[in-house]
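Writing this down once: the sequence line spells out the residues, with the fold written below as integer tokens. This is how one looks:
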Amino acid sequence: MKKIKIEIVQTLRKMNDLNLIIGSEGNISSKLGNKIFITPSGIETSKLDYNHISELDLSGNVLNNNKPSSEVRMHLSIYKNRPKVNSIVHCHSVWSSILSCQRVKIPAFHYMVAEFGGRDIKCAKYATFGSLRLAKNVLNVLKDREGCLLANHGQLTVGKSLDIALHLAIALEKISKQFFFCNLSSQTKYIENSEMDKVLKLFKNYKSRH
């Protein structure tokens, strides 16, 4: 348990170094067996220690008296409904947040959109942070995806490990910036569905070998 808590702290610090978060923003978690380990509420990354990490069961009961992130409902909802997901990264990175405030989905303007599991990257409908409604909205657009935007909020990614979820968070920030600028031009060309289906198949085959 100590190892996974240390990994969570190290990952959050990487996010801070990459300017994906500032202060106490953002939250990440990992699942191990029937336990969830999640960053706490209101502690700045620079002051975070592995002893601060909150432990919960899948029903949301806190097991170690550390108050979990305000977005704990969102994390629990994903784990309950996506059993293959072992880690979640949520942040308010700049470019993803800008697109989220426009409430747009990211279409197939670049083939790397397929890295997130579909022909587009969806944006969850707005709801108050920490609410059950937000958890439901995120789950709705994340059904067959590995990442999404949250309206007027930020972004969220999932993976089998924290490394994968963090990689996708970095990739989503990059592709959000690219799309923001491409969306300003009428010259941007979009990839056809048939071609995106080929790319999705290639991604699936690639992942199955790794």
